[in-house]
Amino acid sequence: MEYAIEIENFTKKFGKFTAVNDVSFKVKKGEVFGFLGPNGSGKTTVIRMLMGLISPTYGKGKVAGFDISKDGDRIREKIGYMSQKFSLYEDLTVEENLDFYGGVYGLSKKLLEKKKKEILKMADLEGREKTITSNLSGGWKQRLALGCSIIHDPEILFLDEPTGGVDPLARRKFWDLIYKLSQNGVTILVTTHYMDEAEHCNTIGFIYYGNLLTLDTPNNMKKYVIDGHIKVKPSLEDVFVFIVNKEGTI
Amino acid sequence: MNFNVKRVLAVIRKEFYQIKRDKRTIAIILLMPIMELLLFGYAASTSVDHISTVVFNNDMGRESQELLDGFTNSQYFDIDYIAYSMDDVHHYIDDGYSKAGIVIPPEFSENIKSGKTAQIQLVVDGSDPTSAQTILSSAGGVAQAMSVEIIGDNAIKTMPQPLDLRSRVWYNPDMSSINFNVPGLIGVILQTVTLMLTSFSIVREREKGTMEQLIVTPISKMELMVGKIIPYVIIGFIDIILALALSVFWFKVPVAGSIGLLLFFSVIFLFSALGVGLLISTISKSQLQAMQLSMFMIMPNILLSGYMFPREAMPKVIQTISNIFPLTYFIKVLRGIILKGNGFSSLKNEFIILVIFGIAVLAMATFKFKKKIY
């Protein structure tokens, strides 16, 4: 299996509204794939379809080599997910949250203890095991949510706007963790609307009004614009604005 | 379907942590049964006694005084007001000071002494049929007792009555309404508490976004449902013990049958009640909707299950509707065991219906629950 994620002609319609329109792409194993686009462009919908939270209207998809329409249960054992809301149990302590997700993933007691130690260290949460989650600040909550989503060592990690509402320092820390996971072979699909974050990805897909406009490495994407137009050292933001203007209103 | 006990245990533990930290839930679990039992146990008492009574006595003889003593001694009447005219009597009853008025005409003592029929007038406030009924029957009792006394035993012996009806009231010989109400009340409390707690349990996770996280884990529907139910079965069991203890030790309701059988039936009933709650939670879009739906369920349950009004008095259609509430059967079981001392063999049908209902409603809740967010 060469690709961690493959999707073909993904389309999702909510009534007459087309949230995702004929999107196809492949994500290599161990890659950090960035899904870039403004709010409401369909990023979350694509992710939710990949994880089986909603069914596509048409299109095919494979995650970790399994068909999303048939092998949802197999897929769920291989993926981790962190939603934009950091869906932790706010009334549980840090440790209770970890215990719960460890239990739900069926970890053995020994493995759970080991993973808990690792995650607390990684998330800088040592000594806060007994803190009620709602009392944690944004950055900690975010890292705890990440910790809960990787407690079972997933092959693929889906991060839906993981850095919303978090201060710049915590964002930097968070991306360091993402790199480390990627180096360990975890495939990461992350959505964001922060252009600077997109720079960190191996591949970026620009999605706009449900259409995948371009798909390339950050550097190639900049070249593409330079070739067509006069612009020295464009930022990704320039590129994004340019592409959107070129495609016009869809 | 895969079933992993570890996952179920994780859900159970999590539910208990959440319950432990939520003051509102703790209050529902511990205070609601006590408060409802005390409130309904006292307020919903249909035994009427110590009725506030106004007396207009035109006769000052010894006999009229004996009659009034008879009324007072019956415990049903409290002579709180003395009137000096018919208008006075009207005033006390109109303004709600008294529910009954006793008017004794001037020649009362004279008539008794001379062996004629003496008349007394009883005025009853009939706006509340329950107390009016009690007033009428107990006043009749007092008057009859006095008549017998006046005629004397000899007269009865010489004139045997053509009919002699001897009534025996079984199961609740004092016809105490507390003894009758409390068993039903236990059922109502159990239904209300479990419905209130479980109707939120799924929809709350949907609203907070934690359900989305749960759906992407390998947990199966069955594991989640079982994990959600077991904590509330345990809590319901605590509540039934609490309610039973209060009934037996505070209200002194005698339990004629086996407590073990009662607890066994309670657990069976809990599965149905919790199943209904989970079903509501599964089909509701928001916590508000879940609350409205459970309120919508609780009212007919209280009114139609036979707790408040005898089902025999209901129109056929309503009786049929009340057949679909598990509470209807559970109340029958509760009254059967507590009042009549029924054993399992008398309650076989209720057992079968409750089990079938429980399985059906739990299966429906599990089936309706989709591992999707839309």
Summarize the structure.
The complex is a heterodimer of chains A (250) and B (374). By secondary structure, chain A is of the alpha/beta class.
Describe this protein's structure.
The complex is a heterodimer of chains A (250) and B (374). Chain A has 9 helices and 10 strands. Chain A is of the alpha/beta class. Chain A has a single domain, classed as P-loop containing nucleotide triphosphate hydrolases (Rossmann fold, 3-Layer(aba) Sandwich), CATH 3.40.50.300. Chain A is globular and about 55 Å long. The mean pLDDT of chain A is 87. Chain B has 374 residues and is mainly alpha-helical. Chain B folds into 2 domains: 233 residues, no CATH class; 108 residues, abc type-2 transporter like domain (abc type-2 transporter like fold), CATH 3.40.1710.10. In chain B, 66% of the residues lie in helices and 6% in strands. Chain B contains 16 helices and 4 strands. Chain B has a 4-stranded mixed beta sheet with strand order 2-1-3-4, with helices on both faces. In chain B, strand 1, helix 3 and strand 2 form a beta-alpha-beta unit. In chain B, helix 8 packs antiparallel against helix 15. Chain B is elongated. The model of chain B has no long low-confidence stretch (mean pLDDT 87). Chains A and B meet through helix 2 and helix 3 of A and helix 1 and helix 10 of B.
